[in-house]
Design goal:
Blueprint lengths: L8 H11 L2 H4 L14 E3 L14 E7 L16 H14 L7 E7 L18 E6 L5 E6 L4 H20 L4 H13 L4 H13 L13 H24 L7 H7 L7 H11 L4 H13 L12 H11 L5 E5 L25 H8 L4 E4 L1 H10 L13 E6 L7 E4 L5 H4 L5
Parallel strand pairs: 1-3, 2-3, 6-7
Antiparallel strand pairs: 2-4, 4-5, 6-8, 8-9
Helix pairs in contact: 3-4, 5-9, 6-7, 7-9, 7-10, 11-13
């Protein structure tokens, strides 16, 4: 549901720059780190999201802050106070929802452990997903909502959930209904884009992540839609991208910025498992890898595997690229200056294949480094880390970056 458009864009931009950080300042002080709303159950683990018969709706609030586990002191959600106020007013507007809703706060930011020990200082970002008792996505929203905006979101989510039940869980029918509703509100820019996307991908059918090839196809769609959004937001807010990312983050604290984006993407992902969508959506929107607390589950097991393997061999961790980069070719093509024979990325990977290897996400790497009490690394700069190598007799792991010359590492794996 669309909120009223504000006519003066220059006034909006000025207000965002002047007051955009107030949400973050609102959360300073000695306060409990989690949300507290009487009448809404606050979940502590994603395992509680589905199935959850007691919760008619579950709110998943995802911020770009690092998990408190990586910080010297726990921090509250950057927009905790205005979000709590909106939730309380929601229950006042819809008292029938009291004790029938749940919420969980999730952090996805890159921790200091992967940023050279420094805390990345960025304006706060918030993604909200609304799921039913089976954990299926019903609605998506970007920014900090007012009480009225949150109420409208909930009413839309309840309407979609009812349609899902009446359609006997027929995802295609629900998707078509949501797409038809979006067609009534989307701007012409997005309508034209979606017509092109539908001819390239499929006709109003949601993605099925269980089908082979569905994830790369979804990522391609989301990156195409993100390019469309960035073209749109540059026109609306006079942004220079790349370059104006800080102003973009401030703009996105307000629902208006990504409202059309949310309406455009929903038909393609509605009824999919909300928790599975979090890393896909956030990495394609934010272009940064996400680090979720769920990534900590295998840290102890991975540490033991490395300690056992390093006794007789090098151990190689293959870092999976984020979803925003997963469709890029690897090894990188360099036809202008090909590597000498025996010194290419393919040769290095062939040499490494004779040693214990394991693929992992950036999030799993963060919790592994913490478990092993290792020093912080620079994951993304000067170029992304592709391999982390543990060697006997070396206290620190070797980081092999995408910009490195692979030939200088091959000899280490030739023995």
């Amino acid at each position: 549901m669309h909120c009223d458009r504000i006519s003066s864009r220059s006034l909006i931009t000025w207000l965002l720059l002047a007051f955009g950080s107030l949400y973050q300042n609102h959360c300073q002080g000695q306060k409990p780190p989690s949300l507290e709303v009487e009448g809404i159950r606050i979940l502590q683990s994603v395992d509680q999201i589905s199935p959850n018969e007691a919760a008619r709706l579950t709110f998943l609030f995802l911020s770009n802050q690092p998990a408190n586990q990586f910080l010297p002191e726990p921090e509250p959600l950057w927009c905790r106070d205005p979000l709590q106020d909106a939730l309380k007013q929601l229950l006042a507007n819809r008292p029938d929802l009291k004790e029938t809703c749940a919420a969980i706060e999730l952090r996805a930011g890159v921790p200091p452990l992967l940023a050279g020990g420094k805390r990345l200082v960025l304006p706060g970002r918030l993604l909200t997903l609304v799921a039913n008792r089976n954990g299926q996505l019903l609605e998506v929203q970007v920014g900090v909502p007012s009480a009225d905006e949150l109420t409208a979101l909930v009413e839309d989510a309840l309407e979609i959930d009812a349609a899902n039940s009446l359609a006997d869980r027929n995802e295609a029918k629900v998707s078509a209904m949501v797409a038809e509703r979006a067609d009534e509100t989307l701007s012409r820019l997005y309508k034209d884009a979606l017509k092109r996307f539908r001819s390239e991908y499929r006709d109003r059918e949601p993605f099925d992540l269980e089908k082979p090839g569905a994830l790369p196809e979804m990522v391609t769609f989301l990156r195409d839609l993100e390019n469309q959004y960035r073209f749109d937001v540059k026109l609306r807010y006079a942004l220079e991208l790349p370059g104006d990312e800080t102003r973009l983050y401030l703009v996105e604290q307000h629902l208006e910025a990504r409202e059309d984006w949310c309406d455009a993407v929903l038909p393609w992902i509605v009824t999919l498992p909300a928790i599975e969508l979090i890393p896909i959506l956030t990495e394609c929107m934010w272009s940064d890898p996400v680090v979720l607390t769920t990534d900590a589950l295998q840290a102890k097991t991975l540490k033991t595997w490395i300690e056992d393997g390093i006794a007789g061999s090098n151990v190689v961790l293959v870092i999976k690229p984020s979803h925003s980069r997963m469709n890029l070719p690897w090894p990188p093509m360099n036809s202008a200056r090909p590597a000498p024979k025996g010194r290419s990325w393919t040769d290095l990977e062939l040499a490494m294949s004779n040693h214990p290897m394991k693929e992992m996400t950036v999030g799993q790497l963060a919790f592994l480094l913490e478990e092993m009490e290792l020093q912080p690394i620079q994951l993304l700069s000067p170029s992304p880390v592709r391999y982390v190598v543990f060697e006997q007799g070396r206290k620190l792991p070797t980081l092999i970056r995408e910009s490195d010359l692979p030939g200088k590492y091959i000899r280490r794996f030739s023995n």
